[in-house]
Amino acid sequence: MASRVTDETVFDAMLAVIAEQGYERAATRAIADAAGINEATLFRRFGSKENLLRQAVRRNFAGFALDLDAPGDDVAADLLTIVTYYSRLYETRGGVVLTLMREAKFSPEVAAVLTEPEALLERVDAVILHHQRRGALVTEPPRHTFFALVGPVMMRSIARRVDQRATQTPVDPEAVVRRFLHGHRPDTGE
Amino acid sequence: MASRVTDETVFDAMLAVIAEQGYERAATRAIADAAGINEATLFRRFGSKENLLRQAVRRNFAGFALDLDAPGDDVAADLLTIVTYYSRLYETRGGVVLTLMREAKFSPEVAAVLTEPEALLERVDAVILHHQRRGALVTEPPRHTFFALVGPVMMRSIARRVDQRATQTPVDPEAVVRRFLHGHRPDTGE
DNA sequence: CGCTGATGCAAGCGACCACTTGCATCGGCT
DNA sequence: AGCCGATGCAAGTGGTCGCTTGCATCAGCG
């Protein structure tokens, strides 16, 4: 009874519009149109643009569960879990994620919304620390390790959206982990 | 005669405002204030916001020359040149570069301005290809190599501006290249 | 000294946008 | 059937912003 057009539809519409316009440019009118509802309805249902974003982010990234609770003896396996998660995220929602990350800098509105998904990073930190202590990874601030691991994935996602000539090939998480662990020299014993 | 406030001052002001506000939010009024001139003067001198951006970018990134014309036998040395260049760029102008890259996606105005600095990437491609053919690098699309190399640097620059808890430590280009070539396993012979 | 051209100032125009409001409509519920 | 809440529609409000304009000022140059 809530509505003929579900909230999920509106969330998807919003994320889609943000992906191609950015948050600020994403006019509530355009979001409403994309969702197939009236702009007034959108405000009656969600109150404000910020609140709509918050709900959309929450509902969308809650689904992306990262199974990281029990880091084991296998570095490669754990890193693969991480890379796979982020490459899937960037593959499906890359436009939104990057836009929001950037826009958070100057929009407290956006920043406030992003605090929730950021909690995920702490769990990643823990896993990396675990393997550093085991001696399976170079010791350095875990965020550095994280950036080195995920940076390539993320840059390809950025490039796909900026550069025409960039590869459209999706990232191969196994290759990323292998290169990360063994380096980019050919035939180094892999 | 030209003016008491130089064009360079205005360019710097614009890039500074963009770095913290983004291009769209960077109000011409705010730029003019930051430069210490009147908004009307700004338009009389530069015509439009887009043209101002173009001149600012041109003048600012022309200075960043990349010395890459003669790739040699030393992969590490050539990669170091590349990483050093980009880490310097992100260090000093990271806020602007990333913002513009992202905003280019939905603003043809910005995209048009960025075509010039993009030419640089082709020279980087050539160097990477050269070393791939020499057998010093894994063979893959050169842009992939580039992303894997520079991704970590760039992500740290992004993080510095988004995450409070991120490292403020500047990137060490030598370490980046070493890890890139040899991987993140400790003591792999290096 | 008188001209010229670049500047500052203040006001305004037109466009866009988040958000509101009043009213008619329509669907499900009792 | 009759009610009620959610919707669509259209118009509007107030704010921001790119850009313009008219006028006064001020510096350099002959």
Automatic annotation (TrEMBL), chains A, B:
Pfam families reported for this sequence: TetR_N
This protein's record includes keyword DNA-binding: yes
Keywords: DNA-binding, Transcription, Transcription regulation
Origin: domain of life: Bacteria
PROSITE patterns: HTH_TETR_2
HTH tetR-type domain location: 4-64
DNA-binding region range list: 27-46
InterPro entries noted in UniProt: Homeodomain-like_sf, HTH-type_TetR-like_transc_reg, HTH_TetR, Tet_transcr_reg_TetR-rel_C_sf
The protein, known as: TetR/AcrR family transcriptional regulator
